[in-house]
Specification:
Blueprint (H helix, E strand, L loop, with lengths): L1 E3 L4 H11 L13 E6 L2 E7 L8 E6 L2 E8 L18 E9 L9 E5 L2 E7 L14 H6 L3
Antiparallel strand pairs: 1-6, 2-3, 3-8, 4-5, 5-6, 7-8
Family: Belongs to the small heat shock protein (HSP20) family.
Pfam families: HSP20 (PF00011)
Protein name: Hsp20/alpha crystallin family protein
Length: 144
């Protein structure tokens, strides 16, 4: 139900981890995610530790879902000297192409403990349904 949009995105993510490069608005870093089906909805969980809720932007246009977030540096006093900085800062982004069978009008989002969880219901038209089989006796009753 979900399709990756860029086959080289994972290579970019690995290169950024090795070089310690921070994401920018023109070249954002990726964010790790899990995607799975749970009953009649798809669940997408994105790791965004240390990102403020108001620094997350979720957008859906037709069947393209875009999540952008920014982890900003923590304000420090003038007398603080940074000894080690391993947590990546900057802009993170993920784009997913959603199948037509998902209901993009009813996506919900929750953010707890650094994990953004999106729930996307499966559209009613895509759910399995039983089809009744008619016979000759049915046609005669209808005036056929």
């Amino acid at each position: 139900m979900l399709m990756r949009t860029d086959p080289f995105r994972e290579l970019d993510r690995l290169a950024q981890q090795l070089t310690g490069g921070a994401g920018t608005w023109t070249r954002p870093s990726t964010m790790p995610m899990d995607a799975y089906r749970e009953g009649d909805e798809y669940v997408i969980a994105l790791d965004l530790p240390g990102v403020a809720k108001d620094a997350i932007d979720i957008d859906v246009e037709r069947n393209m879902l875009t999540v952008k977030a920014e982890r900003r540096p923590v304000a420090k006093a003038d007398d603080v000297q940074l000894e080690l900085s391993e947590r990546p800062l900057g802009v993170f982004s993920r784009q997913l192409v959603l199948a037509d069978t998902l209901d993009t009008e009813r996506i919900t989002a929750d953010y707890e403990a650094g994990v953004l969880t999106l729930r996307i219901p499966i559209a009613e038209r895509a759910k399995p349904r039983k089809i009744a089989i008619g016979g000759e006796s049915d046609r005669k009753q209808l005036g056929g």
